[in-house]
Amino acid sequence: MSQPIDLLFLDGWKDACLPVLQLLEPHLAPGACIFCDDVKAFRKTLQPYVDYVRSRPLNYVSLQLPLGDGLEFSVVV
Question: 22-27 long-range CB contacts below 8 Å, 24 or more apart?
Answer without folding.
Answer: 25/59, 27/1
